[in-house]
Structure formats: structure tokens, C-alpha cells
Structure to design on (1540 residues):
């Protein structure tokens, strides 16, 4: 309850009341599990604070210039490797998709040329089903954490939520292979999201020196032993992933910073930029290699770059109203997309809960459904005669192209098939291309739009690596063309440009990032003159979308139960104090503690940090010394750094340990557990001096601190524990610990239900604007 | 001294020793004045913390949805106005410069066509001198704060340093007019820096509702009453300024975030983006208006946009070595530029200290020197015959163009004059233009490079608004051409592209921002295909430059004495505790304090914040209640919210005040002073209850907290005061206050001189890399 010291005459008695007394035994009741990929997992938090204890300080003092130089060199070397590997993966991904999907389309097209339609359908249908089945099976059986785009999980990780298994070697391999096969199977899913996750995964694995589980570790790579440095690498990896997916290095860096990272430093921007530059330069070199035709069906369309507008585009103030309209409708459609997607994901969760076989079956059903629609729908439109002087061969020979023959007689093409019976990249290119105002019929584009809108919603939740960027772009582009066609001669802009702006508006309405999307679209279209229009359309669609719901990644994170801490402090947090939400019971240790007590506490609680308190005779009065982490206690127990008498240790005991012993282990599942440590009865009666190992500079807040300010501190510095100290002396020197869950709205509103009615439904709209 | 509790047997006695006892009377000895513009001024800090007291909380609770909506609406409306005004200023600035300088060049060219060279020189010389004299005089007499680029001052402001007078209406007007005249006077200075300052100034003035001093205030604009909201507006204003200067909206936003802002929020990115979009769209509209020739001599060159590379550029892996070389030399040249500039500025300071007349004289000397060089140097080169089929008229008719006639016979042109005898924008366009490999002689470009390098160094420090971007670009472009010429046929890239890359490398070597510069150059050249090359060159030149010295803005900030707090924590801060640096004596107030004591303390100290301590009988033991600000105390004294007896006030006293009374006043010089408040003897013996007005949630650190962690908190949350509480109970509940100056290296190293020798000279290099 809000403390109001001055409202009545009881102020003195109120001031003397320990604020926490009434709540000391309330246990945090919010769920600490979340859906990661398609499985439910327990969630731990990450700790971005520097643990400053005597041991670490001694280690720092010992470090010479050579070691500092090595540290810096390794940071940059790792970024270089991340860029290189991500670029290779991205290139191979594209190469594989273009060839797999390409062969499929060439074979079916050839059969249709021979008018063997049923056989063509069967080949198309079966190859899609097999590819989907493969992707779904490896994902469901080997690495369920590879499901979906992975961006929400990485975003939550960068906020401090450690979803288990998202950065393992299995996840990485399944993500790459699963993404290739799933995208090749003509499901309406993207490869950008999986590429971002892949990049993050590569960064995390390199940062921890390889995979521990499979012994694939290199000692010299194991240099970064804390969450802080790993987080930086993962931001670089995400930037590299986005850069490789869209060949958009600046956009990738901006996306990692705007859309993914919770914190930001100028130095980090530079490192992410370096990683993206490596990707851009190597991609350029590999495309140079492929230009000579040595990459199979990997042609110009291999790496997305719709330089559809390299010539100058002219537009004037009179074009503003239609663009404004496009933005508004894009915002509405985007938020509708988010809404339906969240509902569908909830339904899919019921299916997924039933077991692995149901997950795979669901994927197969979606694949069958998709194949039938893709093959069936083009029959609904009539064939169109080829234009008299086509810029490309008509009908298209080979795989991609704007004039697909499909079932049509010679010198005719099926405009809907040109969009549908193609990879998504080619569909986008066709929609974006200029001077094609008469190439597509309104009905075809409309059918395509409806198809994409719903297929992308229903395809995302299947148990396979699936991104959202490409589906959203293709849907948005078709919607933009529709608007262009409806406006007809009332607008001077051509329909290809409308498609670009439509894609921007739909992206803005769904993803709600602005600057990064703007730069990505500019890099895709390679025309900076479009900038003012794209900026405007993104701005409007984001504003309109925010009026209805949150961005798609936040919705998915919330649906998965990942405890993401946003920047915005809800209004009620200003009326509450820290004492109003902190829960107990609190487990503390003495500065020199009995081994038996430590073992008992570690066995009976799952807490990760324990305040260390010096009590008489060590100090005159009980006083907070610092906080010790569970991992460090386990290391002490394992190395048996015990004392027979409760006296302070000398620094000689440090020789028992290396800095690595206190380093944070990688996010592998092979961690030390208290159950693995066997101690004799004698050892159990000995003591440990915790002083040299406890973090002696923990951040503290007074119990009367407002919750909003404590949250600003907690989030701003990326803490895992925030100690609450009493306002009045004479009580225990620490009265509680705040962790991530204590700040979640569910927890706070659970403790103070009367606040719920004070929350306006529309406040989110204001809060995102503010 | 570093506390080492465990190294010896004295640990217990050490633990009982109050850490601060030995230093309680040391006064902070670092200078609290800095050079702002060309004058020395006292410096105050800004407070980005939300002051949460009972009064403010009550005010928040009272606010309805309408007021929240109004708040958000005003934020966006102000951004809209900032964008609009900055765009207008930027456009008028360009229009005026193009016409002023244009007329000058047309008149002199016509005289030279009639071979009246002496008269031409006199016209050129006198017009330059008059323009410079005008700019220098208004700057020196009306607003010395308008001197220089203004970027360092704005950057320091965003870090929390309140340099007085940088955002007044005089500064704004002088900055605009001074920049126009100074740039027109052919001094080698830029308009981008002044535009950024102008944008920030417009934002600050709009944010505080106009200029208080001249009564130009609007009540409805006075909505943002704290440093936090003003900081956000100023970031948007800086972004708009950069966007208007280079017609580079995305680059402008990134520059504001990478180069200027110390903190960053996703919501802020969006608002800055909106402001830049307004600028971009309006600029587009205004250029549309000018295309019909209604803007005098304002032609295509009016707003910088060197779309020299709209066609596709091809480059391959073999081009990497020369580009690498370009980056290395650019980094060396850039750091050399920074070094010489800082030395020259120091010499100029001696001149400036002598008085206003000397400042103006210095500007005139530089102008005379520049005029002579610009007019004299082209005579050194021989005339070149016009190419057989020139793309432009040869020799150039009218003002700008690549084939300047100068003293040459007909059908000949002077290539050095094409570079020198032009506005800087035109010189850059000429250097950037492609297919001009044979147009310039090596000797001419070399002379031009040397001229630009030194003129830009000597011109920056004069008492006039002067930016660094354009001089650095023009110098870098000429150096790039030189490298291109030296490589000759060994490289497939054309010389114009070398000029672009040279400009990028010199910018990177001097300014050391990466992503924003990359985007700005891309927006200037309008060719995204250059991206990998520009990224590489920027990366290399920044790395090389960082090996030698800091970036130019940090050097200028340091030379001016602005106490900027960087993100990087020096290594020694980890070995020191807060108790090692905090200084006294500490001034505190009781929860209910005598008026006489408050008046005495305010008169005798200049402190801005005072801890409020509840002592018996209000509480059982002395306990820290919060912190009260000087401004708020003055408001209480002025409104005479006094009590005759020392008892707690009721909330009725709140009716005496409005929220505005406790709002932070604008950065005008008209602030309330303690000397202005007259109190009777009776009033002096009364009491004030400080509880409702004190910030009850101040951030605190324990005296044993490491300095690095306290700095992370201080900087991360943008604090002005950080309270230090004792580790052991039984002493005063607060033992010190940390402010910005306590964290400055000068102060810390002054207290602990033995740390100086531990600082490696080369550590800066490592630290900027890390």
C-alpha cells in the first residue's frame, strides 16, 4: 500500500512500523516457467552486474598489459569469426533454398508444360510434405527450442531472461537445416528470424568456447566468462544474422539495437557495426563467385536485394494523402495480424501440449493445406495474353520470372501463378518491380493478399524454424499493390512503389520498429530517394498499430511467459514502495558460515544469491557485507576451501582457485549441482570464510524507495538481485531481495489487487507513445 | 586508498574504523568553471532523476486521462514544430549562403572575364572581410556562446553539464545569422555543426515555452518542467539539425544517438526519427518549390546531396588493399588533425583572453589570410585546355561548375580555381564527381589538400559559428583523390569514388563515429552499393585514429573544461571505494528545520541538494528521509510555508503551491536567488516541514561500494546527487554526497596521486577499443 506519512496525525507511529513485517512470509507466486520453442522450461535470470569480490580484484590487479590486450584482441577476433560464420551460414542457407525450391519448381513446371497436371501436383505436394515433415521432425525431436523465429527468445535473453537451451549446438544445427527445408517446402515462413537466432547462437557458442556437451570446446576461445560479455557478443551476432538475411548491414545493426537489445553503449554499436561489415564484405565476395554461374539455380534472386528502384523516382506533396492512407490501413492490418496470430498460437499450444506426434502432425496438416492452396488457386484466374514487348521472356522459361505459364496456352501467362507458384523472394521481387502496373489483375493480387495474410498466420506456429519478416513483407506488398490499383489514375506513383510502401506499412504495423525497418527497406530497394515516403508510412502505421496492441515480438514473449522487463514504468509503480512488493523468506549467511548450514540452504532453496551478513563478534553490530552467488558457493564446497575454526582466511587460500572457477559457466545443461557434492560429517562441521568471495559492492535500495525508481536501477544496470535495506536501524541489515519476478506486473498486481481497477485499458497506448 | 579487509590480522580494527573520518573536511578542489563558446562560465549539473516527493505524487494522482493525453500530444506537437522550424532555418541558411556567396563569385568572375584582376581581388577581399567582421562582431558582442560548432556543448548538456547561455534566444539568432555570414565569407568552416546547435537551441527554447528574458513565452508551451523531458527534446532537435544540414534524416537520427546522446531509449529513437522525417518531407517540398528557379542562385547545389553515384559501381576483392591503405592514412591524418587543432585552440585561447577586440581582430586576420590564399594560389597552376566533349560548359558560365575560367584564355580552364574559387559544397561536388579522372592535375589537388588541411584548423577557433564537418569532408575528399591519382592504373576504382572514400576515412579518423557517418555518407552520395567499402574505410580509420588520441569533440570538451562523464570506467575506479573519494563538509537539514538555519546554509554554500534527516523525537534514531533541492527550498521560503511550531504539516499547505512552483525553471539567467528573499526576524524563528517536498526516494550507495559501480549508477540513471550512507550503524545516516565532480579523473587522481603512475599512457587506446 502506498505509504502516506503526512496525511494524518498517526505519522509517528507509522514511521516506526517496520514496513515489511506484514509480508515477510509471502512467497513469490508468479510462474517461473515459460514456453521456449514449443516446450515448457524453467527460467533463470541473467546477471549483467560485475561481481566485485576480493578474489576477482586480486585477479584484475595481477593482469598485465598483455592480458588486457589479449582480452581486447579476443573480443574483436570473436566478432570477426561471428561475422564470417554467420555470413557463410546465410549464404549456404540461401544457396540451399534456391536450389531445393528451384529444382522443385523446375520439375513441376516442366511437367505442367507437358500438361501432366496431376503428376505435377503430386510431385509438388509430396516434396513439400517430405520437406516439412523433415523440418518438423528434427525440430520436435532434437531441438524444440529451434521452433519459431527465435527473435522473442533472443530479445528476452538480452533483457536478462535465460531460457534454457536456446543457444546449444543442437538448436543451432536444427535451426539452420530446419529453416532451409521448411522454407523450401513452400510454407509461407521467412528465414530472417531464424537467421537472427542463428547469429545469436553462433555468437553464444563461440563466446563460451564451443559446445560443452559434445566436448567441442577450445580453451583459447573460453575467454568471456560472464553474462555481460556474452550479451555483447550476442547483440553482435543478432546484427550479423539480420545483415546476412537481408544483405542489409546497417539495417541489421539498427535492428539489433532498436528491436533486440535492452541496453546500449556506443562501443557496442561499433562492434556490431564491425561484425555486420564483415558479413557485408564477405557476402559481396561470395556473390562475385556466384555471378559466374557456379552456384546452380542460385541466381540474382538468391540474396534478397530488390534493387527495383535504382533509377530516380519522382513524387510530390500531392502523393502524401494516398501514402497516409496506406499507413493507416497498414497499421490496422498489422495490429489485426498480431491479434489473430496470438489467438492462433494459443490454439496451437493446446495441440502442442498433447505430445510430439501431434506437433508434427499439425505441421503436416499445414503443409498439405498450403500445397493444395498454392496449386489450386491459380486455376481460378483466367490466362492473360503476353504483353507485346515484354522486358522478360513471356511466358517465363525456367524458374523465376514475372510471367509464369502454369496451365495457360502459349503466349499467355497466369498472373496469380507468378506470385503464388514461386519462392517468396521472387514473389516480392515481382510485386516490387516497377512498370508492371498492367501485369497483374486486381482479382489475382487480392486473392494473393488474402492467401498470404492467413497462411502466414497459420504457418508461424508450426514446430519448425519460421520467421515472420518475409511473410509480412509479401503480405504488405500485395496489399500495397491493391491500394495502388484502387487509386488507379488518381496517383502518379507506380504500383511497384505502392508495393514497397505497403510492405513498409505492414511491417511497421506489426513489428513496430521504425528506424531499423526504414533502413532495411532502403537497403532492400537500394534507393535513398524513397526515404521520406518510407519514413512517413512507417511512422503512421506504427502509431496506428500501437493504438490497438503491442508489437508482435512482445505479444509472443508474453504468450510464452518470458518475464521481459520493459522500459516503461507503469503509473502504479510510482505509488508503491519497494517494501510493498518484496517477498520473503530471506536466506542469509554469516560472514564465516558453517558448511552444514550452507549445504542445507542450497539443498532446500533454489535461490541464486544470498546476502552475507557480518554479526558480532566479527563486527560490532549486524552489518551487510555483500552478496554471494550460488555458483560460487558450489565452487567453494567442491574445492573444500574449509576452515576448522571460524576465523578470517588469509589470501593464501586463493591459490586453491583459478579465476575460471568463479567464472560463469556457459548456458549448457551440464552445470554443477549441490547433489553432486559429497561431504563427510567432519567437513560439514567446518567453516567457510565467505568474505573474499562475496560481491562486496552490491546495489541496495532502502525499503521506502519507490518501485519505479528501483525498477529503473534494476533494469538500467541489468541486475539479477537488488538488496533491500531497512530504513530504520536496529533490524536485520537486509530485509529482502528483489529479483526480476518481483517487478512483473502479475506479481505486483497479485499483491495489490486494488491497483488493477486503476489501470486504464487504454493506458498502454499512452505509455507506448510516451 | 583501496580497502583490503582480509590481507592482514588487523581486519577487525579496520572494519570498525569509519572510512570517511580522515577526509571529512576535504573540499572538492576541481574547477567548476569551463569555457563556453569563447568565455569562461561557471558550470552547474543537470538532474535527470525524477524528483518523487509527496507533493508531486499528489499532483500525479490528480491528473486525469485528459492531462496524460495532453502531455503526450504536446510531446509530439513540439517535435513537429522543432522539425518544421529547423527545416525552415536550414533551408533559409542554404538559400542565403548560396545567394550571398553566389553574388560574390558572379561579380568577381565577371570582373576577371574583363581581366580587371585587381578590382576583382579587392571586391573578393573586402566582401569576405566585411562578412567575417560582421559575423565575429555579433558573436563576440551579443552571444559568445554561439562560437564554434556547438556540438561539444550540446553533447556535454546531454551528459548532464549545464553550460549557461547555450540555449538562449540570442545564441540562436547569432548562430543562424553568424553561420550564414561566416560561411559566405569563404572561411573554410562548415554549417553542419551550427545547424545541430541551432536545432538543439530551437528544441530547448520551445521546450521551455520561449525566451523568459524577452517575455516571449507561451503558457501552453510551458509543459515540460524538468531536465529529463528537455533532454529528450534536445536530442530530437540535434537529429533535426543534422538532418537539415546534410539532407540526411536517418544519418541525423543516428548521429544524435551515437555522437551526442549519453543515454538512449527505444521511444526516444522513434521521436527523433519523427522529427527527422518532418525535416526530410518539408525539405523535399521546399526544393520542389525552388526547382522552378524562384530561389535566386540557389540551384541544384543548394542542399548538399552529391548523388554522384546513382549508377551502379562495380568493385571487387582486389580493390580492398588500396581502400585499406586509404583507411590507415585517413586515421593517421585525422588524429594529426585533432592534435594540431587542439594546440591551435590553446593558442587562440591566449588571444581570446585579452578581450573582445582581440577576438574580432583574430577573425579578421584569418579572413584576410584566407582571401589572399584563395585568390592567389590558382595563379600558381597552369591553364588546361577544355576537354573535347565536356559534360558541362567549359569554361563554366555563371557560378558553380567544374571548369572555372579564372585567369585562363578562352577554351581553357584553371583546375585549382575550380576547387578553390567556389563554395565548399561545390568543391566537394567537383571532387566527388565521377568520370573526371583527367580533369584535375595532381599538383592542383595536392595544393588544395594542404590548403584545406591547415585552413580548416586555423579557421575553426575564430569567434564565429563554425562547423567541422564540411572542412573535414573537403580535406578528406582531396586526400582521397590524391591517393587515387597515385595508384593510377593499379586500381579499377575511379577518382571520384576515391574522393568519397577519402572523405569517409578522414571523417572517421577525426570524429570517430561510425554508423552515423556511414549512413550520412550513403545519404550524401545516394548509393547503397558503396556500403561495404565505406564501412571498411570508416572502421579502419577509426581504429587507427583511436590509437593516437580521442575524438575531436571529446578533445574540445576537455580543452573547454566541460566535465563530461564517459561510459568507460577507468581501471583504478575498481580499486577505490566511494568512501575514498567523497568529500565534505556535508550540509544536512532536519525533517522539520528552522527557517534561520535554512537561510544561513543557502547563503553560505552553493550546494544544490541537501539530505533531510529525521532525528529524535520525530524518529527513534537519526534516519535519512530524503534529499531536498535548493530550488525547492527557495520556493518554500518565497511562499513562506512556515510553521510556528516544529510539528508535521497537513496536506492543506499544498494549496499554497502549484506544480509549477516546483518545476525546474528554464535555462534562463533569471532565476530566484536567496538574496532576493526578505524575511522578518519572526519568520526566521519559524519552522518548515521539509518532508512533503523532499525527494523521499533518493538513490544511495554504501561507503564501501566500489567507485566503478557507483559511477555506473550515477551515469546510467543521469543523477546529479548520489547519497553515500555509512556501512556501520551508529553514525550519521548519510556521510556524504557524490556529484559529477567527485567522479572526474582530476579529482580522484588529485586525492590519490599514487594512482597516476599506475595509469598507462596507452590504456586509453585499450579502453576505447574495449
Amino acid at each position: 500500500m502506498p505509504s502516506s506519512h503526512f496525511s494524518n496525525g498517526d505519522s509517528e507511529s507509522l514511521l516506526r512500523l517496520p514496513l515489511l513485517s506484514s509480508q515477510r512470509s509471502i512467497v513469490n507466486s508468479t510462474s517461473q516457467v515459460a514456453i521456449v520453442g514449443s516446450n515448457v522450461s524453467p527460467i533463470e535470470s541473467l546477471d549483467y552486474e560485475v561481481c566485485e569480490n576480493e578474489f576477482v580484484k586480486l585477479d584484475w590487479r595481477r593482469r598485465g598489459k598483455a592480458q588486457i590486450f589479449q582480452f581486447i584482441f579476443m573480443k574483436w577476433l570473436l566478432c570477426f569469426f561471428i561475422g564470417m560464420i554467420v555470413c557463410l551460414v546465410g549464404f549456404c542457407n540461401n544457396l540451399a533454398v534456391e536450389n531445393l525450391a528451384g529444382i522443385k519448381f523446375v520439375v513441376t513446371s516442366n511437367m505442367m508444360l507437358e500438361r501432366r497436371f496431376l503428376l505435377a501436383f503430386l510431385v509438388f505436394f509430396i516434396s513439400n510434405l517430405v520437406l516439412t515433415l523433415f523440418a518438423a521432425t528434427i525440430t520436435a525431436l532434437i531441438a524444440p527450442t529451434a521452433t519459431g523465429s527465435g527473435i522473442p527468445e533472443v530479445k528476452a535473453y538480452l533483457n536478462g531472461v535465460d531460457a534454457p537451451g536456446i543457444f546449444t549446438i543442437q538448436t543451432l544445427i536444427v535451426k539452420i537445416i530446419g529453416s532451409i527445408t521448411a522454407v523450401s517446402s513452400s510454407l509461407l515462413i521467412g528465414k530472417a528470424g531464424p537467421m537472427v537466432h542463428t547469429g545469436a547462437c553462433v555468437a553464444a557458442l563461440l563466446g563460451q568456447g564451443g559446445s560443452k556437451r559434445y566436448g567441442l570446446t577450445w580453451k583459447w576461445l573460453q575467454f568471456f566468462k560472464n553474462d555481460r560479455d556474452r550479451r555483447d557478443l550476442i547483440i553482435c551476432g543478432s546484427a550479423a544474422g539480420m545483415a546476412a538475411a537481408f544483405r542489409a548491414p546497417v539495417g541489421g545493426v539498427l535492428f539489433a539495437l532498436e528491436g533486440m537489445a535492452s541496453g546500449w553503449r556506443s562501443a557496442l554499436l561499433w562492434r556490431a557495426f564491425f561484425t555486420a561489415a564483415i558479413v557485408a564484405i564477405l557476402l559481396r565476395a561470395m556473390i562475385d563467385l556466384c555471378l559466374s554461374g557456379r552456384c546452380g539455380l542460385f541466381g540474382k534472386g538468391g540474396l534478397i536485394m530488390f534493387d527495383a528502384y535504382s533509377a530516380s523516382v519522382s513524387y510530390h506533396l500531392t502523393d502524401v494523402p494516398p501514402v497516409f492512407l496506406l499507413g493507416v490501413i497498414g497499421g490496422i492490418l498489422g495490429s489485426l495480424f498480431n491479434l489473430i496470430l496470438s489467438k492462433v498460437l494459443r490454439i496451437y499450444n493446446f495441440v502442442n501440449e498433447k505430445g510430439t506426434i501431434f506437433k508434427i502432425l499439425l505441421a503436416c496438416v499445414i503443409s498439405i493445406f498450403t500445397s493444395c492452396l498454392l496449386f489450386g488457386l491459380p486455376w481460378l484466374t483466367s490466362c492473360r495474353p503476353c504483353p507485346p514487348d515484354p522486358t522478360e521472356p513471356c511466358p517465363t522459361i525456367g524458374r523465376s520470372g514475372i510471367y509464369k505459364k502454369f496451365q495457360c496456352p502459349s503466349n499467355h501467362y497466369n498472373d496469380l501463378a507468378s506470385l503464388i507458384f514461386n519462392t517468396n523472394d521472387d514473389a516480392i521481387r515481382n510485386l516490387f518491380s516497377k512498370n508492371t502496373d498492367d501485369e497483374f489483375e486486381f482479382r489475382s493480387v487480392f486473392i494473393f493478399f488474402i492467401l498470404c495474410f492467413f497462411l502466414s498466420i497459420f504457418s508461424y506456429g508450426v514446430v519448425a524454424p519460421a520467421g515472420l519478416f518475409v511473410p509480412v513483407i509479401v503480405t504488405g506488398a500485395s496489399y500495397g499493390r491493391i491500394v495502388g490499383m484502387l487509386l488507379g489514375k488518381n496517383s502518379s506513383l507506380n504500383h511497384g512503389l505502392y508495393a514497397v510502401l505497403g510492405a513498409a506499412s505492414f511491417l511497421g504495423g506489426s513489428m513496430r520498429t521504425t528506424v531499423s525497418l526504414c533502413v532495411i527497406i532502403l537497403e532492400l530497394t537500394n534507393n535513398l530517394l524513397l526515404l521520406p515516403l518510407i519514413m512517413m508510412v512507417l511512422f503512421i502505421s506504427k502509431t496506428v498499430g500501437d493504438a490497438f496492441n503491442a508489437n508482435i515480438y512482445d505479444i509472443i514473449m508474453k504468450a510464452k511467459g518470458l518475464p521481459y522487463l520493459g522500459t516503461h514504468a507503469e503509473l502504479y509503480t510510482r505509488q508503491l514502495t519497494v517494501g510493498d512488493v518484496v517477498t520473503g523468506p530471506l536466506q542469509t549467511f554469516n560472514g564465516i558460515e558453517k558448511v552444514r548450514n550452507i549445504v542445507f540452504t542450497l539443498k532446500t532453496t533454489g535461490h541464486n544469491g544470498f546476502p552475507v551478513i557480518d554479526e558480532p563478534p566479527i563486527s560490532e553490530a549486524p552489518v551487510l557485507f555483500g552478496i554471494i552467488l550460488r555458483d560460487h558457493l558450489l565452487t567453494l564446497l567442491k574445492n573444500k576451501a574449509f576452515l576448522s575454526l571460524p576465523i578470517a582466511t588469509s589470501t593464501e587460500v586463493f591459490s586453491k582457485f583459478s579465476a575460471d572457477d568463479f567464472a560463469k559457466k556457459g548456458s549448457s545443461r551440464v552445470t554443477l549441482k549441490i547433489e553432486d557434492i559429497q561431504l563427510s560429517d567432519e567437513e560439514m562441521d567446518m567453516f567457510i570464510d565467505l568474505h573474499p568471495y562475496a560481491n562486496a559492492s552490491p546495489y541496495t535500495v532502502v525499503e521506502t524507495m519507490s518501485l519505479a525508481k528501483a525498477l529503473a536501477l534494476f533494469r538500467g544496470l541489468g541486475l539479477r538481485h537488488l538488496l533491500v535495506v531497512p530504513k530504520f536501524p536496529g533490524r536485520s541489515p537486509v530485509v529482502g531481495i528483489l529479483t526480476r519476478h518481483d517487478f512483473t506486473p502479475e506479481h505486483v498486481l497479485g499483491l495489490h489487487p486494488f491497483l488493477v481497477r486503476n489501470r486504464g485499458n487504454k493506458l498502454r497506448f499512452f505509455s507506448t507513445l510516451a
User: Anything to note?
Assistant: The first strand of chain B starts at residue 33 and ends at 36. Chain B touches chain A through 108 residues (CB under 8 Å).
